[in-house]
Design brief:
Layout lengths: L1 E4 L4 E4 L7 E6 L10 H19 L3 E6 L6 H10 L3 H18 L15 H13 L3 E4 L2 E4 L15 H8 L16 E6 L14 E3 L1 H13 L3 E7 L3 H16 L4 E7 L2 E3 L2 E2 L10 H7 L2 H9 L7 E3 L1 H27 L7 H22 L4 H18 L5 H17 L12 H16 L3 H13 L2 E6 L2 E6 L1
Parallel strand pairs: 3-4, 3-9, 9-10, 11-13
Antiparallel strand pairs: 1-2, 5-6, 6-7, 7-8, 11-12, 14-15
Helix pairs in contact: 2-3, 4-6, 6-7, 9-10, 10-12, 10-13, 11-12, 11-13, 12-13, 14-15
The structure holds zinc ion.
Length: 467
């Protein structure tokens, strides 16, 4: 398996720190609103990386945080006259709903910044003790020039950065020793959430959060640190500085970044009116279509979102789903027993498609080529399933479903009943029972059972639940 490492700017063979295990950290969203489709890209991309790692036999410890204290959250709370916590809790819940819709697996751990303040204070104290940080009037800064490797991820040169930042010296940040120094802890302003610390009642800077959460849940050294390319500088560069100066070890072996997302060939922005939340997209499309659309591009290529491209993704996904449902249908009446001699040979062809899929994914997660391999398999299935044995059709069916599942694409859609449909059937069953038509009543119970709905006859009436 080869991964493009942002730090070395080349594809490298993936060798985990510990055989068979992957420790992976993905920077999560700041929760002050519904997530937008730009936030969705890293979620989908790195969930796919995780799924492929698991398919390849690795045990993946996947950590992705929620930044639940931030200027934007505080601003939104003030706007609504509620607490910052109420805002962050609300949008974490909504974010998780969107993740479920996109079939993004919950992380092994989703830490919250506000629950990890003690760890942040500890790390900042260590950095001060080691001479990498200093306190000025309650604000703690990181002494950037003390870290010799600063700039190694973003390939920026400190002197160039300093020249570009000289203007900061005259904009009220003159309490810093150097314009490149960044904040680790800042004192609270009126009406802001705050925590006591040795330096001031205040809150952490954004960068220190990830260094601390990554260390707590994954250890001082991790295999993969990932996020959107907009995080390379300064966020990830600063995380490296903090973690490596505190722990004295290389922080992450591989750095992965997804490219940005445009809307109709323009940068997504609220002011341009081309800003979409995932929730808005879900009103028009199954979010599986959004996932499929995103995986049709390589994660390091810029992606352009348009209604036209979403339509074609929808059609492409339907082609796969139709093939799968057709295979299920053919299986019902297909002959039992052993595969024919020809079919046994054809199994080899199926294996070749899987190999193509794996080769594409092993090459820095080339999901576009992996999807192309799935389509070749679909085409093969469409032309070889009619008249085949049940065993061979089942093999085709399961192979397509399994490869799609590695991409987080649900190829087999189980028909789900809506709550109202369930209640209507229950009413019909009650009426049948009243009319002593027990055959019909049982029929309805079984029909519901097949769709994963169990009925409970209680004294208060019939209750139901989904399996
Ligand atoms: Zn981060």
């Amino acid at each position: 398996m080869r991964i493009f490492n942002t730090e070395t700017k080349r594809k490298e063979e993936f060798v985990p720190l510990e055989p068979g295990k992957v420790r992976m950290y993905v920077c999560g969203p700041t929760v002050y609103n519904f997530i937008h489709i730009g936030n969705a890209r890293p979620m989908i991309v790195f969930d796919t990386v995780r799924r492929y790692m698991e398919y390849s036999g690795y045990e993946v410890n996947y950590v992705s945080n929620f930044t639940d204290v931030d200027d934007k959250i505080i601003a939104k709370a003030n706007e609504e006259g509620v607490s910052a916590q109420e805002i962050s809790e609300r949008y974490i819940k909504e974010c998780k709903k969107d993740m479920e819709g996109m079939n993004v697996k919950p992380a092994t751990t989703h830490p919250l910044a506000t629950q990890e303040i003690d760890g942040m204070i500890d790390m900042i104290e260590t950095l001060i003790e080691k001479g990498y940080a200093y306190n000025v009037n309650g604000t703690v800064y990181f002494r950037t020039r003390r870290f010799r490797d600063y700039g190694k991820l973003s390939h920026k040169n400190l002197d160039d950065l300093r020249a570009g930042n000289r203007s900061l010296l005259v904009t009220g940040e003159d309490q810093k020793e150097d314009p490149l120094d960044f904040v680790l802890w800042k004192p609270k302003k009126e009406g802001e959430p705050s925590w006591p610390s040795p330096w001031s009642d205040g809150r952490p800077g954004w960068h220190i959060e990830c260094s601390v959460m990554s260390k707590k849940y994954l250890g001082e050294q991790i295999d993969i640190h990932a996020g959107g390319e907009d995080l390379i500088f300064p966020h990830h560069e600063n995380e490296i500085a903090q973690s490596e100066c505190c722990n004295g070890k290389i922080f992450s072996k591989y750095w992965m970044h997804n490219a940005f997302l445009n809307i109709d060939n323009r940068k997504m922005s609220k002011s341009l009116g081309n800003f979409f939340t995932v929730r808005e997209i879900s009103e028009k499309y199954d979010l599986q279509v959004l996932r499929f659309f995103m995986l049709n591009a390589h994660y390091r290529s810029p992606l352009n979102f348009s209604a036209e491209l979403m339509e074609s993704s929808k059609n492409a996904l339907e082609r796969i789903r139709n093939a799968v449902s057709n295979l299920s249908f053919l299986m019902e009446s297909a002959p039992e027993g052993e595969m024919t001699g020809q079919e046994k040979q054809d199994v080899q062809a199926v294996t070749e498609y899987r190999k193509k899929f794996e080769e594409a994914m092993d090459d820095d997660f080339n999901t576009a080529d992996a999807i192309a391999a799935v389509f070749e398999l679909v085409k093969f299935a469409n032309s070889h399933a009619a008249g085949a044995t049940k065993a061979f059709i089942a093999l085709l069916h399961d192979e397509i479903v399994r490869l799609c599942d590695v991409l987080g694409i649900i190829a087999e859609v189980k028909e789900e009943l809506l709550d109202t449909e369930i209640e209507k059937l229950i009413e019909e069953r009650q009426a049948a029972r009243k009319a002593k038509n027990f055959a019909r009543a049982d029929e309805i119970r079984n029909e519901l059972l097949e769709k994963g709905i169990t009925l409970l006859d209680t004294r208060e009436g019939v209750k139901w639940k989904r399996a």
